[in-house]
């Protein structure tokens, strides 16, 4: 069976609204990639020039130089092994390689949760990347699953951050634990844990301030937060998610590298994918950081935050080609 057929089968296992969300959210990236690639695939033979054109396209989609080289090298090997001659045959092969690379080495992008007690999830990232919005959307997601969710307003540094989280708390209908602006984030999160326990919450989502200007401060603050959480709840935080704005491209990658040096990151949330034509950044982040992308922001609505899925992602990029080959069946 061709890879496009397999891809279609695999995405049809989730509800069609999820597939539509991925397709709509990634339509800018898909349009720009598909447009650029059509000239590659309509060449009359697979040669060095074709590979070079493909490299340029991937790099300009923010896939990053190292990741692009890895993709094209794998393509060359497979073309030789499978004895492919027609550039058209590269489309499904390229999609297959992208799915494989986005999946990583078998580590599923699922969220680690406490099987018997409170799950604590920590959010880190610089201001303006969509951290508060992501916490709000995730609170909505878990509430829809029937979980009791609470929020801890640990970004005590940025003016307005606490109020913004409270607005989300009201909107979603979950309690927010807060202190005064400027207070100790670890103390807010400590109180959050106590309140979550006494109110029987399943999940506590903790905001933090993302001060990148001073790495030592950032490190110390996050270390203290981790220490407090770990002392109160065994094996917590269960996830430490770094929120990155996809529209900032290679800058997001740089931020991620600094955060990764400062603290233990278990997953990435890539926001605003709907606002960029350079969604290739997801690949660069996955490969260069070796941290799974766990959630993806595909729009501003509450249910536009989706669990990341490599097949859905690649399917959305090549949706037109998949439909063409599988005949819309
Ligand atoms: N289109 C789109 N917009 C998003 C997405 N995620 C967040 N936003 C928007 O990005 C803007 C910034 O989001 P915030 O949540 O305020 O940013 P923030 O990271 O919390 O800022 P700090 O509180 O300073 O950390 C808001 O207007 C959000 O609606 C997304 O996936 N798609």
UniProtKB/TrEMBL annotation:
EC numbers, comma separated: 3.6.5.4
Chemical reaction(s) catalysed: GTP + H2O = GDP + phosphate + H(+)
Annotated membrane topology: Peripheral membrane protein
SMART domains: AAA (SM00382), SRP54 (SM00962), SRP54_N (SM00963)
Residue stretches making up the Signal recognition particle SRP54 helical bundle domain: 22-102
Intracellular or extracellular location(s): Cell membrane; Cytoplasm
Residue sites binding GTP per the record: 125-132, 207-211, 271-274
Record-linked Gene3D superfamilies: P-loop containing nucleotide triphosphate hydrolases, Signal recognition particle SRP54, nucleotide-binding domain
Family the UniProt entry places it in: Belongs to the GTP-binding SRP family. FtsY subfamily.
Described purpose of this protein according to its UniProt entry: Involved in targeting and insertion of nascent membrane proteins into the cytoplasmic membrane. Acts as a receptor for the complex formed by the signal recognition particle (SRP) and the ribosome-nascent chain (RNC).
Protein name, entry field: Signal recognition particle receptor FtsY
Species whose genome carries this gene: Melghirimyces thermohalophilus
Organism lineage: Bacteria, Bacillati, Bacillota, Bacilli, Bacillales
């Amino acid at each position: 069976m061709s890879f496009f057929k397999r891809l279609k089968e695999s995405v049809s296992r989730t509800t069609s609204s999820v597939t539509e969300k991925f397709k709509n959210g990634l339509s800018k990236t898909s349009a720009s990639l598909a447009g650029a690639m059509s000239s590659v695939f309509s060449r009359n033979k697979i040669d060095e020039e074709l590979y070079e054109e493909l490299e340029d396209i991937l790099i300009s989609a923010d896939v990053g130089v190292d990741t692009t080289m890895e993709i094209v090298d794998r393509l060359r090997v497979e073309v030789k092994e499978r004895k492919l001659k027609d550039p058209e045959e590269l489309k499904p092969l390229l999609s297959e390689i992208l799915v494989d690379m986005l999946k990583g080495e078998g580590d599923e992008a699922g969220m680690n949760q406490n099987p018997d007690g409170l799950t604590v999830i920590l959010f880190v990232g610089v201001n303006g990347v969509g951290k508060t919005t992501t916490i709000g959307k995730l609170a909505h997601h878990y509430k829809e699953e029937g979980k009791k969710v609470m929020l801890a307003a640990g970004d005590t540094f940025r003016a307005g951050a606490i109020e913004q989280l409270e607005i989300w708390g009201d909107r979603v209908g979950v309690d927010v634990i807060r202190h005064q602006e400027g207070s100790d984030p670890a103390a807010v999160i400590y109180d959050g844990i106590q309140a979550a326990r006494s109110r029987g919450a399943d999940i506590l989502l903790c905001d933090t301030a993302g001060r990148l200007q001073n790495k030592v401060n950032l490190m110390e603050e996050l270390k203290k937060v981790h220490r407090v959480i770990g002392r109160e709840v065994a094996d917590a935080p269960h996830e430490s998610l770094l929120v990155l704005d996809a529209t900032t491209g290679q800058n997001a990658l740089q931020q991620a590298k600094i955060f990764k040096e400062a603290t233990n990151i278990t997953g990435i949330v890539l926001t605003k994918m709907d606002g960029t034509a350079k969604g290739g950044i997801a690949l660069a982040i996955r490969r260069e950081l070796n941290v799974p992308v766990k959630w993806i922001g595909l729009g501003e609505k509450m249910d536009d935050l989706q669990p990341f899925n490599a097949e859905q992602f690649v399917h959305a990029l090549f949706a037109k080609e998949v439909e063409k080959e599988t005949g819309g069946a």
